[in-house]
Design a protein that fits this description.
Number of domains: 2
Number of helices: 11
Radius of gyration: 21 Å
CATH architecture of the largest domain: 3-Layer(aba) Sandwich
Order of helices and strands: EEEEHEHEHEHHEEHEEHEHHEHH
Strand order of the largest sheet: 5-4-6-7
Oligomer: single chain
CATH class of the largest domain: Alpha Beta
Distance between the termini: 25 Å
Length: about 350
Amino acid sequence: MTGHPKPRRSPARPSLLSSRQRPHLLLSLIVLAAGIVLLAGGSLLLAGCGSETAETTSTTEAPETSTTAAPAETTTSTVAQPAETSFPVQVTDDNGTKVDIPAKPMRIVSTAPANTWTLFALGVGDRVVGTTSLPGEPPEAANITKIGDFQANTEAIMAQSPDLVVGYSGNEEALAPVKTAGAPVLILNPMSLEQIYRDIEIVGYATGTAQKAQEVIDSIMTQVRQVTDATDKIGSSPKVFYALDNTLWTAGPGSFVDELLTLVGATNIGSMEGSPAAGQPYFQFTPEQLVAADPDVVLLPMSTYKSVEEFTSDPRFAGLRAVKEGRVSLVDDVVITQPGPRIGEGVKTLAEAVYPEAF
């Protein structure tokens, strides 16, 4: 799971929902209605949390922007390895909020699977006391207390007495009482590879693992470069329809999926000139529009489809080049779109699906 809402499963054949429009730019597929139950009266204090720390001249301020180079240019960072964090430290989250962390966090709550993976990649999984019940969490987190799903549960989080909450965009309302009670709250919302690197860096400084964070970033960049080196040699750019669910929602320009398809040298039909999705990061094709686009490759999310035949058996799509040439595949959409330390693996998974003959 990406940390964003999953698509809901509809009957096997894609159906047209023409009245619906994608409401936001999340990597999620269908937005769930937000419904947060805050604590009665909002007066319950967070036991064990440090009080809000005022910014002082002794506070270490982490970089506000990523210092890593783009993966297309190099396989490793060109900057010196950072020293381990000394506390107090101040970091700036993806909402532009400066967050003061007075001491090394020892009780950390994550409100998104991608965040949990980051924490475990940084070697602080033993300090995580709360994670979501969503699919896509690390196996090691199975027995950690669950604090919500798409929406964080305020009371469950406060019960863990966290000294750091690594949150996600959309959870701000639920996390406001936690922040008021004294726990530092980071809100992450990476929408690109470069932002994923930056967020890993932020969490590294926030948890006292800045050097390990740089190592994780360098490793991802190396993985991505290995994939792009391989796809650059192929010399073709197949037209790809990347399904976000089984109702023909797809990704257009400005979406994370579009960035990854471009990265591996594919042509995203959702971003092609004249595409009905052009100019929109998410868009629902009609069956007729998909037939007109006639993609070379169709990629179906495992989180929604149980088999390729659910798509290929639909008579409306029998004439598609991808169907006739057997280039319709199921892909692990969680690893491809989860904005965390597994994204290098996700880029490879995507490339293998587009160019199975090359990997």
